[in-house]
Amino acid sequence: MLIYIGLDDTDNHESRGTGRLAREIATDLARDYIVLGVTRHQLLVDSLIPYTSHNSSAAIMIEAPGSLPIESIFERIRRLMLEDFVPGSDPGLCVTTESVAQELTGFGIRAQQEVLDQAEARLLAESAGALLTGLGGSQDGVIGALAAVGLAAGGQDGRYLLLGNSRDLTGLQPLEALRTLGLEDIRTLDGNSVETGFVLADKLRPARRAGRPVLFVEQSGQHYWLPIKLG
Predict the structure, then answer these.
(1) Residue 208: what are its φ and ψ, rounded to 5°?
(2) How would you write the chain as a 3-class SS string?
(3) pLDDT digits 0-9 by tens, 137-162
(4) Count of Cβ atoms closer than 10 Å to residue 78 Cβ
(5) Which residue has the higher pLDDT, 231 or 195?
(6) Is the pLDDT of residue 91 over 80?
(7) Are 61 and 6 in contact (CB under 8 A)?
(8) How far apart are CA 192 and CA 200, in angstroms?
(9) How far separated are the first and last CA of the chain, in Å rounded?
(10) pLDDT value at residue 153
(11) Which residues, including other chains, have CB under 8 Å from residue 33's CB and lie 6 or more apart?
(12) Would you say 225 and 215 are in contact if contact means Cβ atoms under 8 Å apart?
């Protein structure tokens, strides 16, 4: 069973970011589940929306036994977030199955284009069957958390903050090393597949496209490939 987890508004101007917290939670979950990745999703930047830096939210995707109640995963993550609560933050948490998350993709797209409110997010989560809660402050993070699972499930948005041990790779790496992460699709922006060579792997941030990681690269002037960071 594929589970989507959304987090938002977990930080303040001096603290670690939501992306880092999502990676830490993913590391904890990896002790018991298969973590498929952590993705970042950019939401609308507007003066009417309070946000810490860039108004991005994060999603974690895991595989869990179909017999496992998602409430147990929800409670585990809720506890981890409360233990790392940052004063001045307005955290939101959403946990749901893939089928429900796909129903929320439209909301996620709207959150990139419109100013939305908590009431709509909570009503939609309840009607769709997603677990959604605020964990402090104004609880406005429920909007971004719900949007994150929808955008991740839509499969065409965001970039990976974590894919396997991607953050441990540094320097020039052969394509084979990247493929062990699950990066089977490495291509240029004009769509040409890259089959040979080395990639500078210091800041790998593959895009999420068609429900999987895709690494876009460009040729450097020194005969290796440079990763391109897309939203």
Answers:
(1) -100, 115
(2) CEEEEEEECCCCCCCCCHHHHHHHHHHHHCCCCEEEEEEEEECCCCCCCCCCCCCEEEEEEEECCCCCCHHHHHHHHHHHHHHCCCCCCCCEEEEEEHHHHHHCHHHHHHHCCCCCCHHHHHHHHHHHCCEEEECCCCCCHHHHHHHHHHHHHHCCCCEEEECCCHHHCCCEEEHHHHHCCCCCEEEECCCCECCCCEEECCCCCCEEECCEEEEEEEECCCCCEEEECCC
(3) 999 999 999 999 999 999 999 999 99
(4) 16
(5) 195
(6) yes
(7) no
(8) 18
(9) 27
(10) 98
(11) 3, 62, 63, 64
(12) no
**Residue 48: band (very low, low, confident or very high) from pLDDT cuts 50, 70, 90:** low
Residue with tokens 């690494």: 215
- Structure tokens belonging to residue 7: 């987090």
Residue for token pair 């990745």: 37
Nearest by Cα to 145 from 27, 37, 4, 46: 4
Domains and CATH numbers, the chain: 2-160 (3.30.70.2200), 168-228 (no CATH)
d(CA 160, CA 213): 7
Burial of residue 183, with CB atoms counted within 10 A of its CB: 0-12 exposed, 13-18 middle, 19 or more buried: buried
